[in-house]
Amino acid sequence: MGKEHKGTNITWHASRVSVTTREQLLGQQGYVVWLTGFSGSGKSTIACLLEERLIREGHPAYVLDGDNVRHGLNRDLGFSAQDRDENIRRVGEVAAMFSKAGVVAIAAFISPYAKGRQEAREAAGDDAFVEIFLDTPIAECEQRDPKGLYKKARAGQISDFTGIDGPYERPPNADITLHTERFTPPECIEQILQFLGSRHLLAARHTH
Amino acid sequence: MGKEHKGTNITWHASRVSVTTREQLLGQQGYVVWLTGFSGSGKSTIACLLEERLIREGHPAYVLDGDNVRHGLNRDLGFSAQDRDENIRRVGEVAAMFSKAGVVAIAAFISPYAKGRQEAREAAGDDAFVEIFLDTPIAECEQRDPKGLYKKARAGQISDFTGIDGPYERPPNADITLHTERFTPPECIEQILQFLGSRHLLAARHTH
């Protein structure tokens, strides 16, 4: 035998940790919570409260929203119909990746089209996707107008604004429907947690 | 007092869980491990072994590579110079999001350009980015040729192939340089873990 090159006999191939093995080892399951509804319906408020609650109970969770997506991953996208679809497509794919990594991805986007929401569901898988419809009346959202966008839409400074001159396709079979005009944010969170519990998505690993 | 509309007085605004609060509550810190090197240098092998090791020790970790990115998030991208840059840009942004969520993102991409790697570092933040250079000689990579790509590149069926007729900008200041032609994969993993430990990036929460 001559000199042997140590690396030569190494098999260089990759094996992937399965989602199940990951869940067993980490003691946690990832999934996607997808919040859809008008601007001002309360998506970000609910998303951030839910994230904090889950993290406090030991579940890694992460909010995906316009703030962290439009300034980073999707900063190359504008607001044309095509770019809006691509925005939601990418968020759906990233949310699915978080879910596969064992994290609860909480996506908060108007996401007015059923097709985009359905694609997000398919990327994550049906068992790992919870769709929450914030069914807040448009009048209430316009009254809140936290970003002053309805005012601009009424003044014609923004066009294709969802609920004013842009369509919103209501989810026919949302897993949870929230009425943020009648319930406080903490009450909405309880409704969500109750549903997650019923789907066995809150198996705590340890509570802080 | 007249009838009060319950929702009217609710402040609908979002507050975000800070990275520090998240780390304290979850007992774990996220960061990005970025593997760069020629095709066949062992990036996927190292990435998957590292992922498994970290997960077994209770650290959520997730591999980002061509397999899960090119078929999902980046399936709209081809292999033009522009699309390759965009591929790496998006991966850098997603890796940074995982890191902020408390997960160790392990990115395994040839990523031949210093600019793309630098942008990924900036997205995550310098303290949360570990660059690993797989400094495997091109001859060794070509001999391994696990995907048959070097053969195709030599036959002219693929052009701009990194190391053959495409450039690779060597990282001048990688945090770790691995020599996969001289060390076995488990030995490489030990070198990485030693470095991560020295940077206090292995604070275990609990071991399985």
What is the element layout, followed by pairings?
The structure is a homodimer of 208-residue chains.
Chain A: H1 19-26, E1 31-37, H2 43-56, E2 61-65, H3 66-73, H4 81-100, E3 104-108, H5 114-124, E4 129-134, H6 138-144, H7 149-154, E5 176-178, H8 185-198
Parallel strand pairs in A: 1-3, 1-4, 2-3, 4-5
Name of the top-level CATH class of chain A: Alpha Beta
Rg over C-alpha atoms of chain A, rounded to the nearest angstrom:
20 Å
Q: Kindly report the spatial arrangement of strands forming the biggest sheet of chain A.
A: 2-3-1-4-5
What's the number of extended β-strand segments of chain A?
Answer: 5
Query: In total, how many domains does the architecture of chain A comprise?
Result: 1
Q: Low-confidence spans of chain A: pLDDT under 50, at least 5 residues?
A: 1-10
Structural class of chain A: alpha/beta
